[in-house]
Write the structure tokens for this entry.
Amino acid sequence: MRHAFVLVIGGLLLATLAACNTVQGVGRDIESVGRAGKDAMH
């Protein structure tokens, strides 16, 4: 029982870390698009 609990917690931690990296990448992409739009207007 304890072994299964540890595996579930480990899986949740890995999923959380992967989601953070994804959100960070999306933020960079949005920032890049914003800069490109700003440069195009000037």
